């Protein structure tokens, strides 16, 4: 073990040495001697002591002597240029008093071995000072490391900074100066210990209650409660009350109450955890490579949208789900719907993050290559909220795919800081600039109602969010530059896309991959459809078909023998296709929408629900209107008139007379009707200067006799 000069040692139970902290001043190996200086007491003068090097080493091995640390005063830990000139002059003056002594190699050896050595008195006399001053300077020099800066004066400690003082009779502080003669300023009051107790009582009772409260309000309540006697007495004596003013109250509150306690107790627990507590580290501290952790979170977008079928119908604010890789800060999946934050919407976001983005973007008329958004993988762990994912369904469906679900604790938004920051960026750069945005604030009376300005459909907002995600994935982030050297080695800019790509190329990731049909089968809800003669029926208006050769045979069987149920999976983002288990013991087959249901092609699930709701409303509307009432009244009038005329006629003798010869009467009625039609036609001809003979001839030609039906007796 090496024993260096100026090292400090903790000594305990060593013969010849008092217990305490010592500094090693010098080493005389030829004489087997260490010179030590006791630094335990700073109030009385100390002389160095000697100890055998062998004894020192022996006690070190027995742990009677241990290495220790002595912190230098703060005023000595400054550069030469920062030391005031007056301090340097004082330091140099003291060093001149001992310079000749400390530069002498045998000085310490002589004063240790010879207790009555006359070196120090003679040196003090030569310098024109007294021995005690030389000892004080040497003690300071030895105590603080045998360096010239050890003699820097401790003026910063002068006056006892931070130590409480008892208030005297004379008013402390600057007096109040008035410009107007004859006006007497208030005398003021020195703060006593009793006042301080009242200050603490007031701030604890009124100011530290878990909500922000103005100090001035706490001060007013304190005066009303704790200084009421003085204020009432001053009014009776017609003088100003002798009470502490507001500035004094503020000053002592800062002195008496720790600032950290003020911050913590003037807000609620949730706000403190989210916005005010100290940060424990970076968001990527617990992730190693892309795919180690995905963060999932939802937010209600600050914009109202309209229906794609009718832009005059506002349908509310959609919910956005983001899935972000914690290590690379890459947005790996999104989902926008009118569903509230729930497992139903969250699993749709997981499906999006686990499947290819090229087809997904093409649905919204955005052309990309697989390299532009190469995220179709399953992570090792998923960090999400407790609300929508702490349920039996999430455990049963997501865990077999992902492996591990982690839940963020309540009021800890920093646990999902990456995805929360993505939401903030999206609002600032896109959402708050759209028509119908709420800008994240509550509606104030007199402002324009954002719902009245809404013009965008869900599909349009979805498309703009996708484009913004592509932009965010290609944004330069300084934080990524210090997470790996691969970007520098590959000469790539620190963007999430480059970070993701370079780690996948180097096989430094924790990502898995699964078939799209398998992902949808395990995550999406089971919906039962029917095979009918028209196709695969999802609802009254939505029919699907597949490319299987036996599909037409199945429709024939369904028409003749009745429909049957089949299990399926639907995609909320696109109604153009569904996945159906066509046979009981096979996987899911992708089926596309039929031309008869083309109105729903490319529609979001929200638009489909809007259409179904519109049908229900139209169907349940009242059938009776003013026009139908008029028609009904006219009909009743005709009926009443017919009944009245029948009653006025003489009744037949027998009931059979009413229906006897009914066929003959019908035949005569038809002949009369035809003759009447011809007469009307002929009258029109006569109106056009047609001769009477021509009309007569026409009548004869147009009258046709009907063949009589043979009776059974004629056969």
Task: Walk me through what this model shows.
With 715 residues, this protein is α+β, with helices and mostly antiparallel strands. The protein folds into five domains: 8-156, no CATH class; 193-274; 285-505, Ribonuclease H-like superfamily/Ribonuclease H (Nucleotidyltransferase, domain 5), CATH 3.30.420; 526-620, no CATH class; 664-702. The strands form four sheets. Strands 13-14-15-18-17-16 form a six-stranded antiparallel barrel. The protein has a five-stranded antiparallel β-sheet with strand order 4-3-2-1-5, sandwiched between helices. Helix 6 (193-207) crosses helix 9 (246-256) and helix 12 runs antiparallel to helix 21. The longest helix has 25 residues, at 662-686. The chain is elongated. The N and C termini lie far apart (144 Å). Residues 286-504 form the Integrase catalytic domain. It comes from Oceanisphaera ostreae. InterPro entries: Integrase_cat-core (IPR001584), RNaseH_sf (IPR036397).
CATH superfamily of the largest domain: Ribonuclease H-like superfamily/Ribonuclease H
Task: Compute the number of strand runs.
Answer: 18
Largest sheet: 6 strands, antiparallel, barrel
- Gap from first CA to last CA: 144 Å
Spans of at least 5 consecutive residues whose pLDDT stays below 50 are none
CATH class of the largest domain: Alpha Beta
Radius of gyration (CA) equals: 49 Å
InterPro entries: Integrase_cat-core (IPR001584), RNaseH_sf (IPR036397)
Protein name: Transposase
Organism: Oceanisphaera ostreae
Domain Integrase catalytic: 286-504
């Amino acid at each position: 073990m090496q024993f260096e000069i100026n090292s400090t040692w903790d000594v305990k139970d060593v013969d010849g040495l008092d217990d305490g902290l010592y500094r090693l001043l010098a080493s005389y190996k030829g004489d087997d001697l260490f010179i030590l200086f006791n630094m335990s007491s700073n109030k009385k003068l100390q002389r160095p002591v000697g100890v055998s090097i062998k004894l020192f080493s022996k006690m070190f091995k027995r742990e009677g002597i241990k290495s220790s640390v002595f912190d230098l005063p703060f005023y000595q830990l400054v550069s030469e240029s920062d030391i005031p000139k007056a301090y340097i002059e004082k330091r140099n003056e003291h060093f001149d008093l001992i310079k000749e002594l400390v530069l002498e190699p045998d000085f310490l050896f002589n004063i240790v071995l010879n207790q009555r050595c006359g070196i120090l008195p003679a040196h003090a006399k030569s310098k024109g000072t007294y021995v005690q001053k030389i000892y004080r300077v040497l003690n300071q020099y030895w105590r603080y490391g045998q360096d010239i800066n050890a003699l820097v004066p401790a003026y910063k400690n002068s006056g006892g900074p931070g130590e409480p003082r008892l208030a005297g009779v004379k008013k402390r502080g600057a007096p109040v100066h008035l410009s107007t003669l004859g006006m007497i300023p208030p005398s003021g009051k020195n703060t006593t210990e009793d006042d301080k107790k009242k200050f603490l009582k007031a701030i604890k009772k009124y100011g530290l209650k878990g909500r922000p409260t103005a100090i001035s309000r706490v001060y007013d309540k304190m005066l009303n409660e704790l200084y009421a006697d003085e204020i009432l007495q001053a009014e009776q004596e017609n003088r100003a009350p002798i009470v502490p003013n507001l500035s004094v109250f503020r000053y002592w509150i800062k002195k008496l109450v720790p600032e950290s306690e003020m911050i913590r107790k003037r807000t609620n627990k949730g706000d403190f955890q989210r916005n005010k507590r100290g940060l424990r580290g970076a968001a990527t501290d617990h992730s190693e490579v892309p795919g180690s952790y995905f963060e999932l979170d939802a937010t209600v977008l600050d914009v109202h949208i309209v229906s794609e079928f009718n832009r005059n119908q506002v349908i509310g604010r959609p919910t956005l789900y983001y899935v972000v890789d914690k290590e690379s800060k890459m947005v790996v999946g999104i989902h926008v719907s009118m569903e509230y934050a729930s497992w139903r919407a969250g699993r749709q976001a997981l499906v999006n993050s686990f499947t290819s983005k090229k087809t997904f973007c093409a649905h919204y008329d955005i052309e990309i290559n697989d390299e532009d958004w190469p995220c179709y993988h399953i992570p090792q762990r998923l960090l999400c909220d407790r609300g929508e994912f702490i349920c039996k369904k999430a455990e049963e469906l997501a865990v077999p795919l992902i492996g591990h679900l982690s839940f963020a604790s309540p009021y800890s938004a920093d646990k999902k800081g990456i995805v929360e920051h993505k939401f903030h960026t999206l609002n600032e750069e896109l959402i708050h600039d759209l028509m119908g945005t709420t800008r994240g604030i509550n509606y104030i009376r007199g402002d324009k109602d954002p719902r009245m300005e809404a013009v965008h459909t869900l599909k349009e907002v979805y498309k703009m969010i996708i484009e913004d995600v592509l932009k965010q994935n290609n944004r330069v982030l300084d934080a990524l530059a210090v997470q790996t050297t691969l970007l520098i080695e590959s000469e790539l800019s620190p963007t999430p896309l480059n970070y993701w790509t370079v780690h996948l190329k180097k096989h430094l990731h924790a990502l898995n991959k699964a078939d799209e049909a398998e992902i949808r089968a395990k995550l999406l809800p089971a919906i039962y459809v029917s095979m009918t003669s028209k196709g695969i029926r999802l609802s009254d208006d939505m029919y699907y078909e597949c490319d299987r050769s036996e599909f037409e045979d199945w429709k024939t069987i369904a028409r003749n023998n009745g429909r049957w149920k089949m299990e399926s999976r639907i995609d909320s983002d696109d109604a153009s296709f569904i996945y159906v288990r066509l046979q009981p013991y096979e996987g899911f087959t992708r089926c596309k929408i039929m031309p008869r249901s083309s109105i729903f092609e490319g529609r979001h699930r929200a638009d489909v629900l809007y259409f179904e709701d519109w049908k229900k409303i139209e169907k349940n509307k009242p059938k009776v209107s003013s026009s139908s009432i008029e028609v009904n009244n006219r009909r009743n009038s005709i009926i009443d008139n017919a009944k009245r005329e029948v009653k006025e006629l003489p009744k037949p003798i027998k009931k059979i007379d009413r229906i006897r010869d009914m066929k003959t009467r019908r035949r005569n009625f038809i002949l009369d009707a035809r003759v009447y039609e011809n007469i009307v036609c002929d009258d029109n001809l006569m109106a056009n200067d047609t001769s009477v003979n021509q009309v007569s001839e026409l009548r004869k030609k147009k009258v046709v006799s009907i063949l009589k039906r043979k009776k059974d007796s004629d056969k």
